[in-house]
Design brief:
The chain is mainly α and about 130 residues long. It has 2 domains: about 60 residues; about 45 residues, no CATH class. It is about 60% helix and about 0% strand. It contains 6 helices and no strands. The longest helix has 20 residues. Pfam families: Rho_N. This is Rho termination factor N-terminal domain-containing protein.
């Protein structure tokens, strides 16, 4: 069993861990490894046990949501074969300024929008930034 006392987890978190564990076992992962992965997933998604008591270093709901979104984004990138740390031709070209707006990343578009002081840029998606900048 993974380290730590599981008494601080809610019933919902425990059910979620059991479900994830069963899923891993169906895919051929050993029972011990499946349980460890399941609890790691629950911790990643919810920030750990949610019942009162414990370490006292709780994440806000907003921070938890941001972590889940970031985790999902990185997982989607890895499924596509992209690595967030890999340098691509488009990112190196955009630094030299010889690329179109459509080839830029959202972060690069956000920087251009910041330079042009475009209102509402922080809530814009990439396609909205493209329209606002062009």
């Amino acid at each position: 069993m993974p380290r730590g006392d599981k008494s601080k987890y809610t019933a919902k978190q425990q059910r979620k861990a059991e479900h994830i564990e069963e899923s891993y076992e169906e895919r051929g992962v050993s029972e011990k490894e499946a349980e460890a992965r399941a609890w790691a997933t629950v911790n990643k998604q919810s920030g750990g046990g949610e019942r009162s008591g414990g370490s006292g270093k709780k994440k806000s709901a907003t921070a938890k949501r941001a972590d889940r979104k970031d985790s999902a984004h990185r997982a989607a990138q890895s499924r596509k074969g992209d690595s967030p740390n890999k340098g691509s031709a488009s990112s190196s070209a955009s630094k030299s300024g010889s690329t179109s707006l459509a080839d830029m990343t959202r972060d690069e578009l956000m920087q251009k929008a910041r330079e042009r002081d475009i209102r509402g840029r922080s809530k814009m998606r990439k396609d909205e930034l493209l329209r606002a900048l062009s």
